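TA notes, week 10

Several of you asked for a full example with nothing omitted. So below is the full record: structure tokens for the whole chain, then the designed sequence directly under it. When grading your own attempts, check the secondary structure regions first.
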């Protein structure tokens, strides 16, 4: 069994003699985790990767702008660059009353994964 990444948040696990890991059995969880990291990380926040991330929360504070095409473009380009194994099938964004909703239907063909990630971002 090959391991792909450690689970986050890091929690020491005495059973596996270290941190709990994400492996072949839970690739869907790893994919969701990577996708959420891309969406929620603010550009410049990640060390040595200043262009990584969408920073979706920053779009909440745009001046009365309901045109979310720059956000959609940023999401698609970031996923294509940092998670090219994820194929976006459908992407919907809505902003209303300082709430941003993002819904991404995606698949990873190599791992036979299909899923929907829904994020609700609020300014509170």
């Amino acid at each position: 069994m090959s391991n792909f990444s450690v689970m986050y948040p890091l929690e020491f696990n005495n059973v596996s003699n270290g941190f709990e890991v994400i492996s072949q059995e839970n690739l869907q969880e790893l994919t969701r985790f990577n996708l959420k990291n891309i969406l929620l990380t603010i550009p410049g926040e990640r060390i040595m990767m200043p262009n990584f991330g969408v920073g979706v929360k920053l779009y909440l504070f745009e001046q009365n702008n309901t045109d979310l095409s720059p956000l959609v473009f940023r999401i698609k380009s970031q996923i294509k660059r940092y998670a090219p194994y994820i194929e976006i099938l459908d992407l919907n964004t809505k902003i209303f009353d300082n709430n941003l909703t993002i819904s991404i239907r995606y698949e990873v063909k190599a791992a036979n994964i299909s899923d929907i990630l829904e994020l609700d971002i609020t300014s509170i």
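DSSP finds two helices and seven strands in the chain. Use that as a sanity check on your answer.
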